[in-house]
Amino acid sequence: MDGNGRYLTYTFLPAALICLAAAFTGCGQAGPPPPTGDFSASVSPDSASVVVGNSSPIILVSITPQNGFTGTVSISLQGVPEGVSVVPAASFSVDPGGSQSVTFVVTGSAPVGPSSITFLASSGRLSHRTQFSLTAEAMVSTYQIGSLLYLESGTTTDTARMGLETNWGGTIVEASLNGTNFVNEHDTGREVQPSYRDGNNQDYNPTPGGDIFDQGTPIISYSIRADSLYTKSRPLQWDAASYGGGLGKPVAGDILFEQTVTAVASELHTFKVHIKATHLGNDLHANSGQEFPAVYTNQEYGRFLYYAGNSPWTNGVATAIQFPILGQPNPPIYVSERWGALVNMQNQGLTVYIPSVDPYFIGFVSPDAGGGGPTDNYTNYFAPLGNLTIGPGFVFEGEFYVIAGDLTLARQTIYRLHQSLSIPDIFSPFETTDQPAAGSKLSGATPVSGWAVDDVKVSRVEILIDGAVDGTAHYGDPRPDVAAAIPFSPVDVGFSYSLDTTKYKNGPHTLSVRVTDTSDNLAVTPDLPIVVSN
After folding, report:
1. Could you give the C-alpha distances from 433 to 63, 316, 448, 496, 515, in angstroms and in order?
2. Does pTM top 0.85 for this prediction?
3. Domain final position from 83, 117, 137
């Protein structure tokens, strides 16, 4: 009751709510600490590419204060590669709200390739890091000496070179590093070049270099650009005699061959080879493994290395095979990272990466006496095998990369390419027909079965009789035997079909299988002879 006789009403609140209402003051509790000053650091742009012997554009390093920060920020650069200097210096200070321009001077001898540079900004106990990507690009030049077209990529102290021989259809007769050529060019069948095959005709073999008589494929045209070389030719049939030709009488094949070689300036000793092959005929050359490309090196470079494991792109241990291995080509081997290298005992040599090729390679050596130079008969060889069916209107375009020098550095380049490339599905599926067997006599309803796999996915399997579609097979039957034998194969790759032979006249016929993948690549298998006997 107050002095006027009135009753007073009190509301009792919990202590915590009283303190909250008092904005955290009093009650014996301290309020929050005042905001601590800080800063942020930024670099703009955050990447640059510079041709060796030149300077980068201006890079702006900026400091933005936060919460009243007033201290001076020290900047130091870490990871600046050899041969690169910083102007004005690799250490400097920036005031809050200010910025500093920086330029990277890339000397002519700086190593080609990407590097990550850290800008470390610190003030007292505060520090922040920001990353900058600097790519030193090679100097690239092109020129011609006689019949040879040259493309160089490198620095003032380290140069890789590609050489194309116009007398041999523009094939790659040189892939060298600082004057050492790794490519064997003993004859028109060597070099680094694709080769074309027909599953129905072992004599079919248009070869860009020329034929078995060392008659070179005539060049149709070529051009030398600032950073690339282009050639066009019509490859000769390798076995001219099978086509009515011979010594002094070369036979042109039915493929138009176009090749563009470009220096990959952002990578060390690396060249991209783009191939366009156009079928000029209206006939069909059945599915077969094509050499894409054939790779021949000199005697010293006889260690074949590749990655064969089931965990690609994890820097797994490579497998090494020491040549010579005498005799005919070995069975195909599984190469899951799609690169192979022929190197010496110091791991120097030639590495070829084919992003889209089927993951199977072959390799062998043809030994002979000699010193092992570019024109000796002693050579080492491997070839990635890409399945292709060459039919009417066939046009194929694909790429592979040739890297000269150290294998360890080459594999690092391949990993970066793998991460950055959009890799198309350009090769045909694999197929095997289990039944009927070749030469079988068939009557009534006859089962046709086999399996088909693709590096992506099979979409359709059709059965052809005498080149015409009879019907579509059921696809997806379980084939654990195939999955066990082929590392990239799923289990459900079998196909089955019931062929009604009564629709056909008695006598000899051919059976083939047409497999289509999800990218519309077609594989038409070699003809299987059968006899209808109803």
Report:
1. 69, 35, 8, 10, 12
2. yes
3. 137
